[in-house]
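A common beginner's mistake is to predict each chain separately and then try to dock the pieces by hand. The better habit, illustrated here, is to supply every component at once so that their relative placement is modeled jointly.
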Amino acid sequence: MSNILVNAPKTARRGDVIEIKALILHPMETGFRPGPNGRIIPRNIIERFTATWNGAEIFALDMSPAIAANPFVSFFSRANESGTVILRWTGDEGFAAEHRVDIAVE
Amino acid sequence: MDRRHFLAGTAAVVVLPLAPAAATPDAMAEAIRKVIGMATPIEGRVKLDVPPLVENGSTVPLTVSVESPMTADDHVKAIHVFNEKNPQPNVFSARLGPQNGRAVIGTRIKLGDSQRIIAIAETSDGKFWSAGADVIVTLAACLEEAT
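With all components supplied together, the output reads:
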């Protein structure tokens, strides 16, 4: 899992609004750039990032080739109950990655 | 050129960038139409943080924050970001809800040229809010060949 970096608090008070930051290694090749041989390098991007908290979707992001390489996303969530946040990235060429964060809510 | 004509000329130059709709290239206007339909976005409530001058267009930090209590009755449903001059007008579309607590999204984007960025937020009452920012890029993304 070394190609994913996630920053989220391990504990939170009930009702707190917490920030979740996620970074993943990915070229985000736009499909508009010529390679060394002069041919266009085919598009290879992450199209979608989602976050679920105990299975319920809390955030979803549709990306375009205009998102920089190694996509970084930060967003907020209310901490209502202890549980597992699952971050998912899916994209071109069958790309799929997942990261779990356990957050204890007191 | 006498003084009067000179002043008139500078006034025209200063006024131009303030006319938002006219300066928007067609592709971006069309992409925005697809998202908001016939609605007219209201300027305000949205804050678009992006540096006014960037050296490297391949990673430009961008934060969109929307003023909203984020309650079940009054929250931001979606945030969309568009650009004028990249090969495609869309940057991202995010879906949010009251569970987010704060309507703030941060990411890093690519810019192929100096251009205007527009962020549009859809609130739960069906209204659209917008903000724009101009960015000058000295070294554009996409131009360099991959090695």
